[in-house]
Every structure is written in structure tokens, then in C-alpha cells.
Amino acid sequence: MKQFNGAFFRDLWRMVKPYWWHSEERWVARGVFAFIILLNLFMVFISYRITEWYAVFWNALQRFAVNAAWHQMLIFLGLATLYIIAAVSQTFFTQMLEIRWRRWLTQHYLDSWLAKSTFYHMQVLGDGTDNPDQRISEDLASFTGQTLNIVIGLLSSATTLAAFVFMLWNLSAMITIPWQGSVYTIPGYLVWAAVIYSVLGTILTALIGRPLISLNFNQERYQADFRFSMMRLRENSESIALYGGETEERHHFLQRFANVYANYWRIIWRSMRLNWWVSGYGQVAIIFPILVSLPAYFVNKAIGIGGLQQIASAFAQVQGALSFIVSSYGSLANWHAVVDRLRFFEQSMDEVRVIRETHYQIERKDGPRLIVQALNVRLPDGRELIHHLDLDVRRGERLLIMGPSGGGKSTLVRALAGIWPFGEGEVKLPRSDRPLFLPQKPYLPLGTLRDVLVYPFGVPGVGDARLQQVLHLVGMEALADKLDDARLWSHVLSLGEQQRLAFARILLQKPQWVFLDEASSALDEPAEDALYRMLVEELPETAIISVGHRSSLLRHHEHCLHLLGDGSWRLEAVVHPVPGGQQPALA
User: Which residues does the UniProt record annotate as the domain ABC transmembrane type-1 (predicted)?
Assistant: First the structure.
């Protein structure tokens, strides 16, 4: 797929079309783009006038016409000023359009990536697609800028070719070729020379530079992998330090950088070959029109210095327009790599959507309470974890899910949350209620401690006094004066402290349904016991569905769902002893 073929351009059109055809900004974008094209046409017109100016000015110099030469200098100053104004304006409006397009695409890709937990499904269902963060943050920036520059460059080449090909055709009539006593005139001689020169140059450039497309694609991937590996060390710095894994991490870093280094050398050698050719091609292009015009100048004296300069300028414009691929091949190869990365990213998201729509047969419906009917939960390979589960949980009830490791406890919670696509059955939950799911390792967003506490739904109007009260209830009163401190809290706090903050979120959000997937596993039993007692006291109407291994959790729940590991299950009531008695038992 690393070539400019039909599939590439179809995918490119699918990426470009939404903004220019369907977005709310399409008319503004079209208007700005039309103005850029008008500026481009004006710049081509100025270039055309300057090319005509060459003949007049140089002929005036040849005749030693001082006044005429100075007059032409003033004309050139005016033309150059207009060209500079148009060029600066075109750059400004191109950059403005680029950032507006990038903003829209960023929102569009983020929506697609985050919708229905696609970012999660890409990790567990597909190949994960390397570094989606880079594709959204960096590749979109490159894509918008390079696409606009390439399109504007193509249009500029087309208008330049249209404007100057007729001038060069007319100038060709001045070129006569003496041969064996006769004089020949070839219609459009200079135009055909420019076409032949440009076509040969383009073919050779494509042959030499084509490997750069895949090399640039790989370089982006290798560099992203290298950067991501270092980011992972930063995120897990404490664990790696405790393991003493610095030597192993260094080994992995150097391995990944070795890919960057080796591939970059391949790019250097291939680019050097391309640059040898492109540089030579460009230098020969300077003298080539003079070379093919010399017979008319020396033998027939049909043209003067001014005409020769005009021919050189017109030929350079036509040859430059025809040689757009030659002069831009390095940029085109890099652009192709960027487009490929975005194409594959979109295809990965599409594949996940297909898998989700094909396999997701767990229906989620509105209901008066949590009702699970005939629920089968499977792994991606089809192995059944849970068979024909039926549950009925009311507000205020508490259910503990237990079972062996790998028996499907966490996967069941994912199915209840609606993010696990493999299975069949029906899950009912009141649509007006926003359940809160707490994983074993809480997610602490970047920002202040206040932002961490009110994540994910926010608590409008909550004051500092309430936040400090909640911190005290979960045993984190030491942080009460740090509500506006912005730190990397996932690194500052231990896992147990993070889990305490997750319980604080429950008190602030006050959900009707709480699902705790081993959300207190890092705490000791007394701390865990205190937090569960607090939940029951503070939120007596909230249903609590917990996943855990400790039998001590039984005292805080009314029912226990045992997953037996072979797909079967058993639901039992928890018999609580009188105060001061033994541990609760299962009925």
C-alpha cells in the first residue's frame, strides 16, 4: 500500500471530504481557500509580467538606454512589492485555514476514538494501533499542513503552466535550427523540450525516491515507539525503581532507538541519491533553455539578450510547473507516510466498530433496577466464561462477586458496564441513573486535586468544605489544604491512597449504582472495612456490586455470586451473625 494508487486516493478523499463537504465550517473554509487561489493567480500574473519585463529591461541595457533601464527598474520595484504582499497574504491565510482544519479534524478523530470506548476496544480486540496519541496530536498537524501545501503547489503549477506555455510556444517561433545548409523551425520547440526534460526527470525521480515512502512511514513508527517506551518508564517509575530494572529498561530503550538509527541511515542514503539527482536536474535546468536557444542567438541573430533572458525565465516557469513531482518528491514521500498512518488508524477504528457490531449481542435496556437475564460472557476466542447468568439487584442492595483468578469476574463487570462486546443476553439498568465503575487501579486525571476528586461527572457547586469533609471521611485529611495543587497525583500517591480518593468520588458523585472491581485491594482489611461501612452509612440507597477475593468483604454484602471458573455460577445469600459473633456465612 506504500504507493500512490487508487486505494490511497480513495482513502485520502474519505479523510478530506467530511470537513470540506459536511462540516459547519465548510463555507468559511471554501471561501478562504478560494481567496488563496485568487492570490495564487495574482502571483502567477505578476510572474508573467516580470518575465515580459526581462525582455524589455535587458534589451534596454543592450542598447545602453539609461532612462528606459531606470524606468524598468521602477516597474520591477512595483511588481516585486505586489508579489511580496500577495505571497505573505497567501501564507497567512493558508496557515489560518490549516489550523482551523486541524482543530476540526482533532475533534472529529477524538470523538471517533472515544466513542463507545473505541480506544479501549482497539487495545483488547485489535492490534492496538501503535501510538494513537501521536496520530491525533502530530500526524493530523502534518496532514493538514502538507495537504494544503501540496494542493496549493499543484494548483500553482497548473496555473503557471497554463499562463507560460503559450508565451514559451510563441517564443519557440524565434528559434530556428540550421542543419546541412537549411534552416528549420519546430512549432513549440521550447515547449516540447521542457516537456521531454520534465517527464524524464519525473520518471527517474520516482524510481529513485519511491522507497522513501515506506522508510518515512517506518521512521515515524520507530520514533513513536521509542518515545512511548520512555513515557511508560515515567508512568511506572516507582515500580521500575523498586525492581531495579534500570539496566533492562536501558537495554529496551537502546533496542528501540537502534531501529530509529538504522532506518534513519537508510533514509539518509536514499535521500542522498535523490538529492544528487534533483540537484543535478535543477542545475542543468538553468542552462538547458539557453543551450537550446543558442543557435538562434549565434547563427541567425534572431533574438537579443533580452529575448534570451525571457526565454530562460519562461522555460524555467514551464519546466518548474511540469517538474512539481521532481522538486517536491521528498515532501510527497513524507506526506504519503503521514496519510498512511492516519488511514491505518481509521481502518483500525472501523475494524473495531465492525467487531463490536457483529459480536455485541448483549442488549442494554432501561429497567427499574439492575436485571441480568440469560447473560453469556465469552472471550474473543469464543470460550465461555459465564453461562446463562440471571441477577436481580435493587437499589440499596449489596452483591459480592467472587471466584478464581481468570474466572470472569472483571470481564462480567465490563459486560455490565457495556464495554465488553463478546456475549449474549440482556442487561437492564435505569437510564436516568449514572452508574460509577471503579477499577482496581483508579485513573487520576492531570490537574488539581479538585479535578481528581470530581472526575468523571463533575459536582457542580461543590465547595471546599465538602471536599475537605470527604477527604477526612476516606482518611486523606492530610490533603485537605491541597485542593488547588496541580501535581502528577498518580505518582505522588500510593495505590492505596489512590483507592481512597476513588471512594471519595463515590461520596461526591452519590451514584445510585456503584461497581467496585477490587477497588480496595491495596488497602489493609481494617481500612477496607472502614470505607465499606462509610459507604453503607453515607449512601444507604446506593446499590453496591463488588468484585473481591477477601472473605472479609462478605460482612458488607447481602448476596454473593460465586463464579466457578467453568462457566457455571452460584448465587447465595450472606447470613450475618449477631454483633460480636463469627464471620458471616453463606446460606
Answer: 31-334
Q: Is the pLDDT reported for residue 528 higher than 70?
A: yes
Closest by CA position to 205, among listed 313, 151, 292, 282: 282
Domain boundaries, the chain: 366-573
Q: Which residue has the higher pLDDT, 229 or 18?
A: 18
Average pLDDT over residues 150-161: 87
**What residue has cell string 537502534?**
258
CATH number of 366-573, picked from 2.60.40.10, 3.40.50.2300, 3.40.50.300, 3.30.460.10: 3.40.50.300
Q: Distance between CA atoms of 4 and 9, rounded to whole angstroms?
A: 7
Q: Are 318 and 194 in contact (CB under 8 A)?
A: yes
Confirm if 113 and 353 have CB atoms less than 8 A apart: no
Question: For 115-131, where are the alpha helices, taking DSSP H only?
Answer: 118-124
CB-CB contact of 507 with 538 (8 Å): yes
**CA 139 to each of CA 146, 341, 343: distance values in angstroms, whole numbers, following the listed order:** 10, 8, 11
C-alpha cell at 111: 470523538
* DSSP state, residue 567: B
pLDDT, residue 375, reads 92
Interatomic CA distance for residues 81 and 65, integer angstroms: 25
pTM (two decimals): 0.70
Classify the C-alpha dihedral 346-348-354-356 as positive or negative: negative
Give kind and range of the element (H or E) at residue 43: helix 26-62
Q: Taking a C-beta distance cutoff of 8 angstroms, is the pair 397, 459 a contact?
A: no
Q: Which long-range contacts (CB under 8 A, 24 or more apart) does 241-247 make?
A: none
The whole-angstrom separation of Cα 167 and Cα 310 is 9
